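User: Here's a protein and a ligand (calcium ion). What would the complex look like?
Assistant: Let me lay out the input and then the predicted complex.
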Amino acid sequence: MRTLLTALAAFYLFFIPVLAQSATSCVPAPPGVVSWWPGEGAAVDAIDGNDGTLMGEAAFAAGIAGQAFSFDGMGAYVDIPGSSNIFFANDQPFTIEAWFKPESEAASFFILRNAAYGLRWQGSAGPLAFYNGNYHYSARTSWELNHWYHVALVDNGVDSVTLYIDGVLDKSDDGVLWNPNRFPCHGGDYCFALQLGGVYETQDVEYFMGKVDEVTLYDRALTGAEIQSIFAAGSQGNARRLIRTAMGFRLQMTVTMRTPQSTLALLRRVTGTMTTAMAPWMMVVTGLAMHPYPPAPICCWP
Ligand SMILES: [Ca+2]
């Protein structure tokens, strides 16, 4: 019998990141970005590991920058597990900003929410609710369906929660009106996830119908000028796109450790016994393949 001692040592020899760059220049993300969900065909967090899961019929469609999350108002949402870096205690400043496009008159549906912050659509003739542990309401009460809006919720962690719409200050609830009550878990029952496009909890289920794009979370209070610049870039259609895509490959080599039959036969004749420990080895490369390497997105900013 042909003796063939084979050990497959498949290992990643190396990978070669190849960066395909566009001519568009990129600038670093503003300081304090914790997470960013650009909605480019996946619910991944382009900044760190707070990836989401598509639930129901959640999908993607044309967005304000590239693609956006598309929600049907009937069970579609994105579920992002709770994490300490996307929750903020009452004394921690934060900003969350996003684009949304309402597509239904139906009122009272969360565009996004966790236990610390939220944005709730309440119909085209009502205020937008914004949540910092307690509910606040926009001054604006008139909205168009099928229109993109930029919204930013800023809480300074001291005495003020502010809503910006399309880069313009809409409402600021200060002092006793600030009144946050943020807690990450509901008693000992469960801890809140961040959900986009709706809320699904045991005691509360509701779904937004429309698009949501470029949801971005910061661990500081952005200034009005920063929010204005984000809105301005996005309204020109070239906001934070993944302009550069890291296309990576890794080279996989399969190595076979082989003892040729002739050598074994010779050893048997000479010694009468044979153990693998005595076998002379020959290393043969039997496979070479290139595999796509899932790249970490390279994030561009206005
Ligand atoms: Ca997008």
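Summary: The CA atoms of residues 54 and 171 lie 32 Å apart.
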